[in-house]
Amino acid sequence: MLIPKVLLVNDDPASLLALESLLTDAAVRRDYELVSAGSGEEALRQVLRHDFAVILLDAGMPGMDGFEVAEAIHAHPRCAAVPIIFITARYGDDMNRLRAYRSGAADYLFTPVVPQVLQAKVAVFVDLARKSLLLESKSAQLAQLNQDLRAQRLRDLERINAELQLEVAERKQAEQRAGELAIRDPLTGLLNRRALLEQLEHAVTLGERQQGEFALLFLDLDKFKDVNDGYGHDIGDELLRQVAARLTAAVRASDLVARLGGDEFVVLVEGRGAAANAARVARKIAQAHARPYQIERQRVTTSSSIGIALYPQDGAGAHLLLKHADLAMYHAKQHRGSVSFFHEAFNLRERERARWRQELRLALDAGQLELYYQPAVDIASGAVAAVEAQLHWRHPRLGLLAAPDWQDQVPDLALLERLDDWCIGAACAQAARWRAAGAAPRVAINVLSAQLQPELARKVGAAMRRHGLPAGAIGVELPEALLCGPPGSAAATLQQLHAAGVALSLDHFGSAGAALRLCNTLPLDQLKIDAGFVRAIGDAAGGSDMLGAVVLLARALGLASVALGVQTQAQLATLAELGCRAYQGELFSGPLSAAELRAKLPELARAELG
Length: 610
Hints:
Layout: E1 5-9, H1 13-28, E2 33-37, H2 40-49, E3 54-58, H3 66-75, E4 84-88, H4 94-102, E5 105-110, H5 115-145, H6 147-183, H7 193-210, E6 214-221, H8 224-231, H9 233-250, E7 256-261, E8 264-270, H10 274-290, E9 293-295, E10 298-300, E11 304-311, H11 318-334, E12 339-341, H12 344-366, E13 369-378, E14 384-395, E15 399-402, H13 413-436, E16 442-446, H14 455-466, E17 474-479, H15 488-499, E18 503-509, H16 516-521, E19 526-529, H17 531-535, H18 543-556, E20 560-563, H19 569-578, E21 582-583, H20 594-600
């Protein structure tokens, strides 16, 4: 009796046992023989010893992963045609699925596997192997019986085998096409409702097991029916396709996007900080959809209402979370707000942030913003080396507020860029007035934006030319956190600023864990030491030694060192002893208005300071 063999490969003993239990009944019936391997290397040894009808291969093994094992198996002439079914827990990973098929996979399954599906797929290849073995056996018998008939018989067998292989290939292609149709929305190419619910169930399972969290965004286009009625369904369909494209571009690479049907879309945001990330993603989506769409000759304007539900506080199951996100979306639509949380506490925080953003926009138009200036003093000479322009807001309810008091409440990149533009213009204008009066302190501008925009160099350069400022008249203070991301685009922007004669300072060094390579590779001029190092002078944990190490680091990198937050003569004396170049702090002066600074500094006494 000819019994095909099936190879199970998985590095996790529990998963391996689970797969064996799904296939044991057929093995007991002697339909096929099960062979197990706990690693990629062991699987290769088994392939060299036995012929297998099919191999069930774990994609994500340590050391030699499933893709490498598949390539090695199919590279050997003896086993080049062995069908491989990948089994993985990586949901929605289309790149790995494509890599698997390029490695010669016959199929690609996600866990938990449906037993009947796995058994049916294995049965197809076992049946094919049994037929192949039977054909080989018959061929040998015929060769023994009659040498003259062998050639004809072999041709018949080859034809039958080719037909069988063609049938298997066609079946595999049909399964692939059916699989795509089963999980994708045919209009937009996004995941459909069925696939979304599967992903949600998986996210809930992982959340229960790992005590994780995630957010669900339910999005509905406003007045979509008017588009269909006014322009026709063809325009409406194209609008949905363009909405899907913008939606995909607005979310993070790790976020999952699906279309439920009609004009309803869903985004699954996983990972830590799901609530904050969901709000940020929702705002980006709302901003992206607010721009008009150009469809054929029509300019179509629409907007979106977005509801957000959070796991686990808003529901412990996929269907309940989807329902609550839908309810939150209706809340947003009824209250004319683009984003609404199902959980009221998050709505209050989002409304507070929206209030800050609205009041800041009014402040820009109403002249409520002011620049205050804090001198940086040369320790050796006692002369003012530069002044740092610090943004303040004269709030009609709360009084004078420094930017750090409200900056975190405004996670709106476009608004922060407008504030940066205002600061650049106001600081350059003030620097020009001082220079016209005979005083020339360098004015350093703080950057508020959470991203270093390529346009920053152009804007600063244009403002300097507009006010007739020479190279070295303006500096830019770069928060350490701003440079902790990928350095590619930041380096290009900083090179342009440096070439324009703008002095560059790394602000509050030591507060955000910037890599030392940044200080060595970027065109910086100053290292501004965080006030925490200054406060630690003289403590038992070696604060003075730490500060001395930072000063030496700045000197080794060819950067001027400026200590922040200096409040006492003892701190200043320690800084002088350590060789620090300059300092800022209450010991000399806190932030001052232009008029107050004129009164404090004799060299500015003749300047017309507004």
